[in-house]
Write a structure and sequence with these properties.
The complex is a heterodimer of chains A (435) and B (262). Helix content of chain A is 26%, strand content 32%. Chain A is α+β, with helices and mostly antiparallel strands and 435 residues long. In chain A, strands 5-6-7-3-8-9 form a six-stranded mixed beta sheet, sandwiched between helices. In chain A, strands 11, 13, 16, 17, 20 and 21 form a six-stranded mixed beta sheet that branches. Chain A has a four-stranded antiparallel beta sheet with strand order 10-12-14-19, with no helix packed on it. In chain A, 34% of the residues are buried. The C terminus of chain A is likely disordered. Chain B contains twelve helices and no strands. In chain B, helix 4 runs antiparallel to helix 10 and helix 6 packs antiparallel against helix 7. Classes of the chains: A alpha+beta (435), B mainly alpha (262). Chains A and B meet through helix 2 and helix 4 of A and helix 2, helix 5 and helix 12 of B.
């Protein structure tokens, strides 16, 4: 099957210095008089927004483009949608493209909702006949029926968004390019967008989708391309690319923390924590932690003198300070009768860390018999659980769904129900498409 | 992109062209008390002031044509040109979101803005008909030229406008220069005076102004009996075509950078 999109050696260079300097003719004339033979680019700064990017996309593929801000994602979309031109390389796209880089582009304040639907539709590439046909659906989708004849300058920002997205949702292109439209609006709006995006793929439509919402990318896309510093760092399965990207961005995040010099601690100090490490099942440092992951916490300690019957404990707390769980060797029934002087470590192996995505704080303690406290550190480390598609259902599970993941299954009238039917459709499509 | 490809693209985007022009027409007189009446008020009052000031007080000759007819027939194309030149020259910088977020053949924007102005011109032309009736000037075949002349008028306004628009993207000087150009322009165009009233060697210089020949022709179409500088008009029309082609070439070479630097 011939690819729908071919990107070949694509590069885009921006001149930064020049724009700052020469925005009036006078400046240019003055500079020409000063350096009549000087090279014009002598002190021009350039920036490669994209460097030698190549990939191709087959019909029906849904590709996520991920990467941090300024990585070149938006530049890539602008080149694909022909808004801007490459410095080098080539883009070719077969079929009708619709690029949705912003919701409600070209809306005019003075025009009514009705007039803006037609205007925005034509801007996005819909003909009048097409808008006529879908007009009622668009209006129903937007939920602004009552204000159709009102100039949109009287609309709330939410109404504008809904109207803009309603028009976009009724596009019917062969290639759809979407940039971060989910980032705007409230939770309900985002959910509606996401559901619409779910419906818009399929039907053989090719979609390129930029988002910072990893859960959304994971749900929607059959493949992901991770771009960093204007270059393709990884092009592969959605899960693989997201993991690679998140690990890299978490690389800056610590996988261990030294506690020896920790100032705000209580306790008598016969034995103290010196370090905490987060490790994966193979003992490797673990920076990316997802809900349900196995995690090993390694607590290093130093005992200044022999200590009798210590209990190692730690708490996990939410951002608001609620204790999620309080775990210790003593509670677990692990008796340590005697700890010799010197250094050592103790591992806590967690089979499945069933916390929903959020940021959690850790508090550590070593206690002894009779309420003796050797060492206690409050909020001394942080665990970040990344947002992910926990149930494999195409639903974004974030912090607003609580803190606890409960392993589960559902039965209806006794029969076991697994996943979304459309999800299995999707995976069979991906196989057929030769991903 | 080859020329045939460009034409096909323009055809594909004809609906956008239509809706952009429609937007321009609809939006202009929203939230005004007089609304569309402004289309008439502006040339009518200018004509009255000119008639009193230049006709009665300064006694500038009008080739035997009634003052009102003479000024009004010159003012209509001139007002179209001056107001649209300003709007077309700024059309890229006033539509930044469109330029930065959507692809379309960029030339659609200046042409839609220039086209929308013809609505005003047509309404003004109806009023001119009333003035002609009042002065007892009868119908003549040459009047058929009046609507035809709107084509070169559109072409030169859009041409010069899109050149300025493309320069404006890079150098915002244009925004400041435009009102100034328009202000001086009326004196370098035979709106207030007939071409034949100025010294002969200046007449050639005047004909280099594309609007000069156009205004003369507009006036000729309703009062054909006057003495015309046909050579000068020929030069003016050649300049119209040259301006359009030159601007088109410049615009096409500059448009690749619009989204990056606007």
């Amino acid at each position: 099957m011939a690819p729908q999109i071919v990107v070949d050696g694509l590069s885009k260079q921006y001149r930064i210095g020049k724009l700052e300097r020469d925005t009036t003719l006078r400046d240019k004339l003055v500079r020409m008089l000063k350096h009549p033979f000087g090279s014009r680019d002598a002190n021009t700064e350039t920036l490669w927004a994209l460097k030698d990017v190549s990939f191709s996309v087959d019909p029906g593929e849904v590709v996520g483009i991920i990467g941090r801000n300024g990585a070149g994602k938006s530049t890539l979309l602008k080149l694909l949608s022909r808004i801007t031109y490459p410095t080098a390389g080539r883009v070719s796209v077969r079929g009708r493209i619709a690029a949705l880089l912003e919701v409600g582009t070209g809306f005019h304040d003075e025009l009514t909702g009705r007039e803006n639907i037609y205007l925005n539709g034509s801007i996005l590439g819909m003909g009048k006949a097409e808008v006529d046909k879908k007009f009622d659906e668009i209006v129903a989708f937007s939920g602004v029926e009552r204000f159709l004849e009102t100039p949109i300058k009287r609309y709330s920002s939410g109404m504008r968004l809904r109207l803009g997205f309603a028009v976009a949702a009724h596009l019917d292109p062969e290639v759809l390019i979407v940039d971060e439209v989910l980032a705007v609006g409230d939770a309900a709006f985002q959910k509606k967008c996401l559901d619409t995006m779910q419906d818009m793929r399929g039907g053989g439509r090719t979609v390129l989708f930029v988002s910072h919402n990893m859960a959304a990318v994971e749900n929607l896309c059959t493949r992901a391309i991770w771009i960093d510093g204007g270059e393709v760092r990884m092009d592969g399965t959605t899960r693989g690319a997201i993991d690679a990207y998140l690990s890299a961005s978490a690389g800056a995040r610590e996988t261990a923390r030294d506690l020896a010099e920790w100032e705000s601690r209580r306790g008598d100090g016969e034995v103290q924590y010196t370090r905490i490490e987060f490790l994966g099942p193979g003992g490797e440092p673990k920076s990316l932690i997802r809900c349900g992951d196995a995690l090993t916490l390694r607590f290093h300690y130093r005992a200044a003198e022999p200590v009798s019957r210590p209990s190692f404990g730690f708490k996990i707390l939410t951002e608001l300070g609620t204790v999620v769980t309080d775990i210790s060797t003593w509670l677990h029934g692990v008796e340590i009768p005697w700890l010799p002087a010197g250094e050592g470590y103790i591992d806590l192996e967690i089979d499945a860390l069933n916390l929903l995505p959020a940021r959690y704080h850790l508090s550590l303690s070593i206690t002894g018999p009779d309420r003796k406290v050797y060492d206690a550190l409050a909020h001394c480390a942080v665990i970040e659980i990344e947002i992910s598609d926990i149930y494999g259902s195409g639903r974004v599970i974030g912090s607003r769904f609580g803190i606890l993941y409960v392993p589960q299954r559902w039965r209806f009238n006794g029969s076991h129900v697994t996943k979304h039917s459309d999800l299995s459709d999707l995976s069979s499509q991906a196989v057929a498409g030769g991903v | 992109m080859s020329r045939s490809l460009l034409l096909r693209e323009l055809w594909n985007y004809r609906e956008l062209f239509y809706f952009l022009a429609l937007r321009d027409v609809k939006v202009r007189y929203k939230q005004t008390v007089f609304g569309v009446a402004w289309v008439i008020i502006q040339p009518l009052f200018t004509m009255l002031v000119f008639t009193v000031l230049f006709g009665r007080v300064a006694k500038i000759p009008t080739d035997g044509t009634p003052h009102a007819v003479f000024y009004f027939s010159g003012l209509l194309p001139w007002i179209y040109f001056s107001s649209r030149l300003n709007l077309v020259g700024n059309c890229l910088v006033t539509n930044v979101p469109l330029v930065k977020k959507v692809y379309f053949p960029r030339i659609i924007l200046p042409s839609a803005v220039a086209l929308a102005g013809l609505v005003d011109l047509c309404i003004g032309s109806l009023l001119l008909g009333v003035i002609l009736l009042y002065h007892g000037i009868g119908l003549s075949w040459s009047m058929l030229l009046w609507p035809v002349l709107m084509v070169p008028l559109f072409v030169v306004t859009m041409g010069l406008g899109m050149f300025l628009a493309a320069v404006n993207v890079k150098y915002r000087d244009v925004r400041h220069a435009l009102p100034f150009i328009v202000q001086i322009g009326i004196f370098l165009t035979p709106v207030i005076y007939p071409v034949r009233a100025i010294p002969e060697h200046f007449q050639f210089l005047l004909s280099l102004n594309p609007m000069s020949g156009l205004v003369e022709m507009f006036r000729f179409s309703i009062t054909p009996g006057r003495d015309m500088d046909w050579a000068g008009i020929g030069v003016s029309f050649a300049v119209v075509i040259a301006v359009f082609l030159g601007s088109l070439m410049y615009f096409r070479s500059a448009e690749r950078e619009f989204a990056d630097i606007v």
